[in-house]
Amino acid sequence: MFTYSFGKESLEAQVEVLGLTAAYEANLAKAVAHARALAADGLLPFARQASNGPDMGPIAAASARITASCDDLIVLGTGGSSLGAQAAIALARFNKGKVRIHTPDSLCPFEMDLLFRELNPRRTHVLAVSKSGTTAETLAQLLACRSWIESGEHAENLGDHFTFVTEPGERPLRTYGEKLGSPILDHPTDVGGRFSVLTNVGMLPVAVSGLSVEAFRKGAEEVCEDFMTNPETATAVVGAALTQTLSEHKGITQVLIMPYAESLRAFTRWHGQLWAESLGKDGLGTTPVRAVGPVDQHSQLQLFLDGPNDKFCTFITIPSFGKGPRIDPDEAKAYGLDYMAGRTIGDTVTCQSRATQETLRAKDRTVREIVIDALSEENLGGLFVSFMLETVVTAHLMGINAFDQPAVEEGKILTRQYLNELEI
Question: Residue 414: its pLDDT value, please?
Answer without folding.
Answer: 73
